[in-house]
Amino acid sequence: MALPLLFLLPLLLFSSPALSAVTVTHLPGFNGPLPFHLETGYISVDEVNGVELFYYFIESERNPKEDPLILWHNGGPGCSAFSGLAFEIGPLKFVSKKYDGSIPSLVYNRYAWTKVANVIFLDSPVGTGFSFSRNPEGYVVDDTITSKQAYEFLRKWLVEHPRFISSHLYLAGDSFGGKIVPIVASIVAKGIEDGHRPLVNLKGYLVGNPRTGEFVDFNSRVAFAHAMGIISDELYEAIQRYCEGEDYKNPNPHNLPCNSVLNKFATFEDELDMSYILDPKCPIASPRTERMFGNRYLQEEHSEIMLPPPVVPGLKCRSYAYFLSYYWSNDYHTREALHVKKGTVGEWVRCNKSLAYTQNVQSSVEYHLNVTTKGYRALVYSGDHDMGIPSIGTQAWIRSLNYSIVDDWRSWHVADQIVAGYTRKYSHNLTFATVKDAGHTAPEYQPKNCLIMFNRWISHDSL
């Protein structure tokens, strides 16, 4: 796997690793002072290689002392936590208007989860967002190393923020972050059992449209496509017949009948936005791998913005806001405001697809089992129009836990008894919920309803 050329930057470009957390009161593109408390900083998680993870911390706007603490992981692996902050559950969002050369505009998101919780948005694994390593070896990570570094981050962050040590702690994330979260939760739970200090107050975790590593994550796309009327009965039945026992993403190349029908299925997939099948298919607004770590470094002495991704999405595309985030994060004034260490990251990309990352945990399902049987709470939610990690597959691995049903399938509602999705509660404090008319990152598509869902769950109320 390719390694970033930023390793070649002279060490003198790096500022002191002991940089303390900094309060940010103003951000480029946002009119006036921020109406919430934002802090950014770094935590060292590997002193041998000089690995430092960057984070954004936003205090609850309701009652920071009493409200829970959330450690948020984004997907990828390699998608910056800023995606979670600006496109999902944070108090900022971009104004999607045509880029005119000025810094993109940000406005307040009134459906942020930070209305009711303290949230740490973590750029993890290293190489994601503004997280970096001084040593090239530090970038070579896997599921296990990443999860252990997240735990190291959490412990050190709490030492630096002792007033949150007693806060109810929940780990959260979606997509690939949803695979990492139960692994981290298992490590945290073991640390509590072993008496690690500080003694954190873990209460549970929540994951959205989560990866597990199981075949069902992707194989369920076929059943989803059939249920949504995307493929015919005949193609569905042919895939069932010829591909039994196969990993649909990587079938046996010698199983020619299976490969043939999966190729037909792929033609239908290619026409759709897999994250939300009702959206038009648009460019993802991420730069090509070969551009991400080229010999072009940010000119720290002036405010030039780096070149945009090679394919610009249309203004009406949801991904246009992703395109704007690229301009915003690579502006010198933005980096100054966030207190990004100079010379550490040459080019910010929303999702770094060039990580030296190994998925060494075959399945996270055993970690879900481990954590929930210890009494910790879990919420698994799925946007019901996501074809990337369909709710059908998520329900399948939940059933494999063999938990009894405590509250059977029913609708859950928001104001005026509007159906917002469907839910089922299992033993061992496990709740599953769908979010109606939502995609892969559910809060991005249904921000109000997801805030209601989240607030009810952390408040121990019924959905």
Folded structure, characterized:
There is one protein chain. The chain is α/β, with parallel strands linked by helices and 463 residues long. It has two domains: 1-230 and 274-463, Alpha/Beta hydrolase fold, catalytic domain (Rossmann fold, 3-Layer(aba) Sandwich); 241-271, no CATH class. 29% of the residues lie in helices and 19% in strands. Strands 1, 2, 3, 4, 7, 8, 10, 11, 13, 14, 15 and 16 form a twelve-stranded mixed sheet that branches. Strands 5-6 form a two-stranded antiparallel ribbon. It has a two-stranded parallel ribbon with strand order 9-12. Strand 15 (418-426) and strand 16 (430-435) form a beta hairpin. Mean pLDDT is 90; it is low at 1-19 and 287-305.
Helices and strands in order, then pairings?
Layout: E1 22-24, E2 38-46, E3 51-58, E4 69-73, H1 81-88, E5 92-94, E6 106-108, E7 118-122, E8 132-133, E9 141-142, H2 143-160, E10 169-174, H3 177-193, E11 202-208, H4 216-227, H5 233-242, H6 256-269, H7 289-292, H8 320-329, H9 332-338, E12 357-358, H10 365-372, E13 377-383, H11 391-399, E14 405-414, E15 418-426, E16 430-435, H12 442-445, H13 447-458
Parallel strand pairs: 4-7, 4-10, 9-12, 10-11, 11-13, 13-16
Antiparallel strand pairs: 1-2, 2-3, 3-7, 3-8, 5-6, 14-15, 15-16
